[in-house]
Design brief:
The structure is a homotrimer. By secondary structure, chain A is α/β, with parallel strands linked by helices. Chain A has three domains: about 90 residues, MurE/MurF, N-terminal domain (Udp-n-acetylmuramoylalanyl-d-glutamate--2,6- Diaminopimelate Ligase, Chain: A, domain 1, 3-Layer(aba) Sandwich), CATH 3.40.1390.10; about 210 residues, 3 Solenoid (UDP N-Acetylglucosamine Acyltransferase, domain 1); about 30 residues. In chain A, about 15% of the residues lie in helices and about 25% in strands. Chain A is built from five helices and 39 strands. At the A-B interface, strand 22, helix 4 and helix 5 of A face strand 4, helix 3 and helix 5 of B.
């Protein structure tokens, strides 16, 4: 795709300062963009690059004031990130989807597949599964018995959806994620050995959910594991049996949530966070990366940090002292010596 | 499956209080069960739900005393969880297995496959591999040269077993786990670059082992990585080269064990735990979630917590003070001021 | 392979003390090697095993002095690990590669595949992809549109390379890793819902890079994610959009690096480390396992530990006090009591 700056400004309702007729072939970052690329200035800390960038044009906030002369063309917009999103959408092609249903698939006669679905080679779909309108299933994926894939959802190559799971519409599930693996449930017998408890529940995923690559979302033991509408999960995340992740909650990579915990809506969970089982995390909770949450949150909107997690600001205050603990120890030793001296004096 | 409460009570040798002839169609959790479902009361904290549940029947401990009137039918049993296990086994169908050996597989002529094995489409089995009686290999899995899959073991879709690995009997390996990837071994050359050390060992997995989804178990560099009989591993776990995981040890999701460490039997390792290499962890050790174990354990039965991990109770005691470090700092400052005053006084 | 000790000594230019004509069938560890195996003594803590090992021969350092009588044959070499590497290379066969291009592949007519490439069954290669000389792609892998796999690179079974990614030459990517999944980028709309930002960049991987099993390396949002020449990544690692991992940097299992962070060359990053986004980590930085790096490093060669990470030695010093915080608390209480007594005395 090659378009003029003018055309781009129209797309995002921007105002041009510079060359209206220059050609743009794609997006680039302000610090390393090449000629022909369109860049943007969002975070002010990148402003110095604006004066040296090779980008042909740069999106800036409407009221931005340049402090030095510019050689690039500016496109002023009311919201840089919004404009950028519109442009990326226009430029991006994404992974080419299968054009139809491959002849090299294994679809059970008792599966129901909408004719508008597009399905890549080597996909297997078991009996009783239902693939709805506009679904794209890339090659090498697996859909288990009785599972449902909702309208316009896309499964990237290698996704495994086991039996009895329900995925909403307009979802995206990235490569090699596993939905509906067994929950981790065992009972100990008299010899200290573990015997498997059958995991009879499913996984229910709402609409507009995105799940990253190589995630694992276990089925419920009894009743379902739930990822509610609009939730966004990054890569390598573990969601255990019977967990609920609330609406529009965002979870960063490598976090894990243990069995039966209920996470509210609009939460932000940092990378590598662990949450123990059977807790309740209220709406709008923010959990700092690597924290280990060991008790239910007390009110919505809390910010948590540490292992076990406490309030974010308290953790940082305590950690500031922690960094100086050797010095603090020396002060205590010095106090003890002073006291000894004073005791000797007062005994005279 | 639809059965009467009477039939269920017979299966678990329970005693009915209520409607013997009501129909049960499946299991449900006491807090959200619907009519027609059978639920259970294990953890006493769920007792309030017993008085409001929609479940048609509820399994309770033999000697349970209700404190309010009930509308549900009770089935009294000697061990609720044991009874539940029996019932889930009866209700559960699980992922339908392939009915035979698919025609769309790639089985080398020099692989040995028992005719009772069932193998899904797009499975590849290399030369010298041996698939024993009753094995189920779901679609899209891979078995490398010389690897052995023991009797009645099941590999879920997408499992990759590389060459020279041995999996015991009655094991379960969940989707997209990788067994026998190379250990992470390099030597640094004079230019500070890393050169690969060939990884010549294998992975040996005992009987009755369960391994979750998206795990990685590396082959030994020299000699084998071992997961002993009855061990249970959750999802997204990393087991490095030459590690031994002892019998009946349980490891929660996202834990990682570095090279050559030997974990004893009957240990409980929490989620996101890391254990550094070349350690020895004795039998019956409990390691709290997110701990980082940096030294060998001293005796069996220890409970560990923290990074680096210390005794569980010591960590909690220290952490209790940590949470109040700013307050402690103020007390030290106050002591210093008092001492100054006393020194001035005593100099008079 | 069965060779004499003499032949082995020639391969590694070693000097034999013992039986030149004994036969060696493979490598073994000194602590559990069997007759017919060749072992080595690298780490001196394993020396006791030398006097009891069943190994037929053992590689030792040239100037090693035995302190007890030996029953095994020694092969003295200038560098034990170097010699071992040479021998493992000779003994190892590795996962058998496909012998040619399988007939059961899905290669788009517009993909370019060098005839010397070997490609296993059920591999899919999209339009515009280029597979160079000597590449080995094991079964069940996926190569997206416009992606390039450089000379002699090997992709193990189940690897998914999405579109627009470039992998260098002589790379190894282990099973089920995903390269080019979408970066985790969303913008919040007025209703607190997240809208996907298209991820238009790619992933660029240099030469001689090794990436473990079940890793996830996201494409850049705008511009590319980069793993530079010679970098080595263990299993289950998360690399977010627009990250750069510098040359010859080594990252242990389960570490994660958040978006746009630039890690220098020759760094050592421990297992389960997390690094937040938009940081710069200088060359030769060492980060201890499980650390959480929250700010850019100040100079090259730093050693970091803790969450948030501080200098390694400071963390250990503070942690030593942390372990005794309850005792320290008692000392403060005792000081407070002493002060009270002294104040009373001085008021008399």
């Amino acid at each position: 795709m090659e378009v003029t700056v003018e055309k781009i400004a129209q797309l995002v309702q921007g105002r041009i300062e510079g060359n209206h007729q220059a050609f743009i072939i794609g997006p680039g970052r302000i610090e390393d963009a090449a000629e022909g690329q369109l860049s943007f200035l969002g975070n002010p800390k990148y402003e110095p690059y604006l004066y040296t960038t090779q980008a042909t044009a740069v999106l800036v906030q409407e009221n931005f004031k340049a402090r030095k002369p510019l050689s690039t063309t500016l496109i002023r917009v009311p919201d840089v990130y919004l404009a950028l999103g519109i442009l990326l959408e226009a430029f991006d092609s994404g992974l080419p989807a299968p054009t139809d249903i491959s002849s090299q698939v294994f679809i059970d006669d008792e599966a129901e597949v909408d004719p508008s679905a597009r399905i890549g080679p080597n996909v297997q779909i078991q009996a009783g599964a239902r693939i709805e309108k506009g679904v794209v299933i890339d090659g090498q994926s697996f859909i288990g018995a009785q599972s449902v894939i909702g309208e316009n959802t896309r499964l990237y190559p290698g996704v495994k959806i086991l039996h009895g799971c329900s995925i909403g519409s307009h979802c995206i599930i990235h490569s090699n994620s596993v939905i509906g693996s067994d929950g981790f449930g065992f009972s100990k017998n008299g010899k200290g050995e573990f015997e498997k408890i059958k995991q009879t529940g499913g996984v229910v995923i709402g609409d507009n959910v995105e799940i990253g690559a190589n995630c694992t979302i276990d089925r419920g033991s009894i009743g379902d594991t739930r990822i509610e509408t609009g939730a966004k999960l990054d890569n390598l995340i573990q969601i255990a049996h019977n967990v609920t992740v609330g609406k529009h909650t965002v979870i960063a990579a490598q976090a894990g949530i243990a069995g039966s915990t209920k996470v509210g809506s609009h939460c932000m969970i940092g990378g590598q966070v662990g949450i123990v089982g059977h807790l309740e995390i209220k709406d709008h909770t923010h959990i700092q990366a690597q924290s280990g949450v060991a008790s239910s949150s007390k009110q919505s909107g809390e910010k948590l940090y540490g292992t076990p997690a406490i309030s974010y600001s308290n953790y940082l205050r305590s950690y500031a002292v922690f960094r100086n603990l050797p010095e603090q120890m020396r002060r205590i030793q010095s106090l003890e010596q002073e006291i000894e001296k004073l005791k000797i004096q007062s005994n005279h």
